[in-house]
Specification:
The protein is an alpha/beta fold and about 550 residues long. Helices cover about 50% and strands about 15% of the residues. The chain is built from 20 helices and 17 strands.
Length: about 550
Amino acid sequence: MSASSSSPAVVSPAAGPVPRGEEVLTPQALAFLGDLHRRFAPRRAELLERRARRRAEIARTATLDFLPETAHVRDGDWQVAPAPAALQDRRVEITGPTDRKMTINALNSGARIWLADFEDASAPTWENVVGGQLNLIDAYERRIDFTSPEGKTYALKDADELATVVTRPRGWHLDERHLTVDGEPIPGGLVDFGLYFFHNAQRLIDLGKGPYFYLPKTESHLEARLWNDVFVFAQDRLGIPQGTVRATVLIETITAAYEMEEILYELRDHASGLNAGRWDYLFSIVKNFRDGGPRFVLPDRNAVTMTAPFMRAYTELLVRTCHKRGAHAIGGMAAFIPSRRDAEVNRVAFEKVKADKDREAGDGFDGSWVAHPDLVPIARASFDAVLGDRPHQKDRLREDVHVTAEQLIDIASLHAKPTFEGLRNAVQVGIRYIEAWLRGLGAVAIFNLMEDAATAEISRSQIWQWTNAGVVFDDVEGTGQAGKATPELVRQVAADELTAIRDEVGEDAFATGKWTEAYELLLRTALDTEYVDFLTLPAYELLQS
C-alpha cells in the first residue's frame, strides 16, 4: 500500500491549539479519519451532485412523489433492529451543544436522551469541534465539572440519573477545513462521527450503552445507505460488534419525507427512529420549491404551526412509518426559554408547550424535544399521561393515516399570508443569530426562544422567496398602506435593525461584535439572485477559527 493511501488525516497549521486537544487528535484517531475519508468521501461527493440534479428536476416539474423504483421496500415485510435498553424509553429529549456547561446540565436535566450537537446548535470553530469531543470523553470518564464566572459550580449526578447521549454530527454538505487527507478537507460529518466513535464506542459499551447518532439533513435513502456503510466499516475496523451503532434520522428535508420507509430500510440493522424537525423542514420546502410560484409561498414562520394540513400530513406519516417498522417516532422542538422576570410570558409559553406535547403524545409519537431543562417536566407529563409505565407506544400503528404525495406539499391549504412584521422578524432574528454564530455560538437565545442554524436558514430563505415572488404585504409599518417585498425594503428594514441593535447593546459591544458582518451576510444570502444552498457555507468562510 502506498504512503498516500494509508496516510492519516493532517491537522492544518492554521487550526491553532486547543487545550488537551492531543487527547482527541491522537495518531490512531487521525489514521481512522484518513480511512473514513478515502473510503467514503467520493460517494459523498456523488450524492451532493445528485442533490443538485434532483433540485433541478423539482424546479422543472414543481412536484414530488414517492419513488416507484422502491415500491417493493414500502410493500415489504421487514422491521428495524430492536432498540437497545438505553433507547427503549425516549419520552423526553433535550438538545444542545457540547460545551462543558451544557454537557453537565443536559446530562443532569432529567431528560431520557441528550442530543449532543455538533451540527445546527454548534458553530464549527476548531475549539468547539475538538473541545466538544473532549467534553464527552470527560463526561463518560466522570471527570467533568464546570465553574461559572459567577462562582456557580456544576457536577454530574449519579450515573443512573444521567441522560443517554445521542450525538449529532454535521450534515454531508459541510467540510472540516482544519483536517485534510491528501490535501482534501474531510467531510465534517465524518470528522464528528469518526472522533466520537473512535474514542467512545468501547467506553459506551462498557457503560451498558453504545454509540448512538442523530443523522441530520438527509435528503434521500441513498444518503442513509452511505451512513450505514460508514457504520459497518467503523464497527469492523475497531472490532465493535455489528449492530452496536444506532441512528435516528431527522426527517427535516421535503425529499426525505417521500423516502421515510426507504431510509429506515437502508439503516435497518442500525436504525432507531425518525424525528420531525420543523424549521429545517420548512427551509427545505422553500429551497426546493422557491421558484414554484405563488402556491409554494410560505407565510410567516410563526404562522406555520404543526397543525397546518401539510405539516399534519408529514408528522402523521412519520408516526405511521416508524411504528409499522418497529422504530421510535420522535416529535419536534419546544424552543421556549423560560423568563426569570416575566411570569406571564412563562405561563403563556408553558401552555403552548403543553398543548404541543399533548398533541404529539396523542398522535402516537414516542417522545419529543425540548431546548431547556425547565421544559422537561412539562413534556414528560404529556407523555406520561399517554404512556404510563410503557417505554413507548409503537403498538399504535396509525393505520388510519393515509397520506398522498400531494398532501405533503399542499402549502396553498394554509390560509395565512406573509406579513411585514414577519419580514421584520426574519431580519431581526437572522442578524442576531448570524452574529452569534460568527462568534462561535450555535445555540442562541433570541426573544425567549432557543434558536439554532435552522432558524437563520428559514429566515433568510423566506426573505429570498418573498422578494422573488413579489409578495405584497397588507400593512407596512402600521401605515395601513400595502407594500411589496422588494430588496430595497429588506435593506431598509435591515439598516433600521442594525441601528436599533447598536442602541440596544451600546457602542463598545457593537464594535467588538460581528454585527456588520452578520448584516452583510444576511442581505447577501437573502437577496442575491443565485440562491445559496446553505447559509453556513459562506458563514464558515467568515468564521475566525
